[in-house]
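Example: Hydroxysteroid 11-beta-dehydrogenase 1-like protein.
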Amino acid sequence: MKVLLLTGLGALFFAYYWDDNFDPASLQGARVLLTGANAGVGEELAYHYARLGSHLVLTAHTEAFLQKVVGNCRKLGAPKVFYIAADMASPEAPESVVQFALDKLGGLDYLVLNHIGGAPAGTRARSAQATRWLMQVNFLSYVQLTSRALPSLTDSKGSLVVVSSLLGRVPASFSTPYSAAKFALDGFFGSLRRELDVQDVNVAITMCVLGLRDRASAAEAVRGVTRVKAAPGPRAALAVIRGGATRAAGVFYPWRFHLLCLLRRWLPLPRAWFIRQELNVTAAAAA
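Written out as structure tokens, the predicted fold is:
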């Protein structure tokens, strides 16, 4: 019976996510500012947008990686692609990035927030200093970018696409400051969506809940702590793009994360058991 129930739920979620009226042509000529575009899901997002004919401004911390991604985007057919290297740990960076994008593209249709800063997993990551740094990179810079870009997105009736994490919906061990920043994102953008609705502002907000990022830095940060495998970058990126283009309120990749979020309040003890199966608790506690 349990197997049949889970199979039925899986079929329903699959049908829900793929019956989304996604029209790839809607992204041709779209003006996109994408953060965290140097690796992993962000890099794959850039390549998908390039194939679909979007105009791109890419930003990330490392200029050399950005130059490589920009070159590949041009080969894939992006009509316009620019880059600006920026460190989101600096409070001045977000505004300069958005201004650069507005100057180059003349406005924005999509703001795709994907950059992350990761602290080492384990108890040493709970310090106030680490938490302050993570909150600037993973939360406050998102707020700053959004605030600066919102007037342009309002004019274009555009979309905010926020790439978050399961740790912003379901707390887990040994990720205290990172999870705090992701929960803050969920609260901020959930409240902002309601404010925009009340004010009749036609800007969509799509919250994307992804698993472990498919990038070397993410894998290294949790090496020996978790048994979770990284989500494949190209497929996760495509799910994010589909959600943003169809103005969906939420995207979950893999789809089972939606089920976990729905059940988290109903079944707290089984949830704790499942989390323990994914963690090497001894290694994490010793970190």
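The chain has one domain: 24-278.
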